[in-house]
From TrEMBL:
UniProt name for this protein: Carboxypeptidase
Pfam families: Peptidase_S10
Organism: Camelina sativa (False flax)
Lineage: Eukaryota, Viridiplantae, Streptophyta, Embryophyta, Tracheophyta
Keywords: Carboxypeptidase, Glycoprotein, Hydrolase, Protease, Secreted
Enzyme class of the recorded protein, top EC level: hydrolase
Presence of the UniProt keyword Secreted in the record: yes
Amino acid sequence: MYRAASGKTKTKVIFLLLKPNKPPRRSDIMSPPPHLQWLTISFALILFLSSSSVLSHSSDRVTSLPGQPQVGFQQYSGYVTVDDKKQRALFYYFAEAETDPTSKPLVLWLNGGPGCSSLGVGAFSENGPFRPKGPILVKNYHSWNQEANMLYLETPVGVGFSYSTQSSSYEGVNDKITARDNLVFLQRWFLKFPHYLNRSLFITGESYAGHYVPQLAQLMIQYNKKHHLFNLRGIAIGNPVLEFATDFNSRAEYFWSHGLISDSTYKMFTSYCNYSRYVSEYYRGSMSSICSKVMSQVSTETSRFVDKYDVTLDVCIPSVLSQSKVVSPNQVGESVDVCVEDETVNYLNRRDVQEALHARLIGVREWTVCSNVLDYQLLDVEKPTINIVGSLVRAGVPVLVYSGDQDSVIPLTGSRTLVSRLAKQLGLRTSVPYRVWFAGQQVGGWTQVYGNVLSFATVRGASHEVPFSQPERSLVLFKAFLNGHPLPEEF
């Protein structure tokens, strides 16, 4: 899922905008790719195959990205084929830890959408080592690769630089296919990087990655029952979609409590047509007149000049509105560029950048933040994943759910409700009572921990993409999560 800061419509990001442009195509669900050989692969075979020079990661090494500052860590990017027959390949970008990478854990980051890029959003807008600024890259001083080796994956096929030689591969893609492809990606990625096989592995992401991350973790646990390969040590998901109705319908109260809608519209939004009903009707092609009326009023009052991903953040005014004058991008502090999406699109569409990344455009003319070719089964959003999160907790996998508290798309109230309900269902007692935590001598947010395995945290002043808007606080949160420590009680 991605914040449309520039005002450009993201038609594939179904529940982010109040009025999507068009319903998805009705396509037959694509048969999953053959995975038998990879679901039965052994640890010994991986070590054997990794000795092949064909599987060496050296050809994926990025010597330097155009305009980047000098750094001391290694970077890699390239492709991992997840389906040999249809030539379906996923693109990755890997930034090793800034210091002592051999002792740091491996962290996989996934953005959501479904259909938005972990390279352009996660790596270049949120928690990666660099951010584009005009023709150059500037260092992100709160990059997560200070604490871990960061692996960013553009998934599913059809997103960003990931591709298939057959356009039919982009039709009928769903959560099940995506999870299996992500599993195969990791298996084959370890063939290139066998020295990371025994490393502590964490899976992180945000938004629709509330589907991607738990489903991938579940497959990894199932796989490990026969062939121990993944040293999974925890998952962390930010502003995640975990349960359709609870997450979506919490936005009505959020809009109202932040003054974005009137009392009368709030009543309509909660009594006559809530947001989950609207989405269900829209994508089934059966929009009722009452839902159309309610959502039109909500859209009018909230205004397209308010960023729904951060109701306090200024928007990047599209150039079309300025006509003959140049509008300088609004800045919030030193680290938040509300026009970073435009900067990223321009940077990743440069030929020299693509060559440096070993990337290529197959079947599309340009790299986009969110895919224009992917036909995702969008109604998968209605399938809850909070129950999968529960199974992970029962298996002893630590889970952190965190929320930027300025996000109206997937508000903190829904996430907090779901985590609290899950803890009660699992019989987990509160080990850390609800309290503030600190970062940089300021309140970083609030947190509560259940049974030392399930945690909830808010990040104060943060948007839907927490590391984008609160980089320092997100790094404190990330470090505590990796180390299994409580968030700081004092500064």
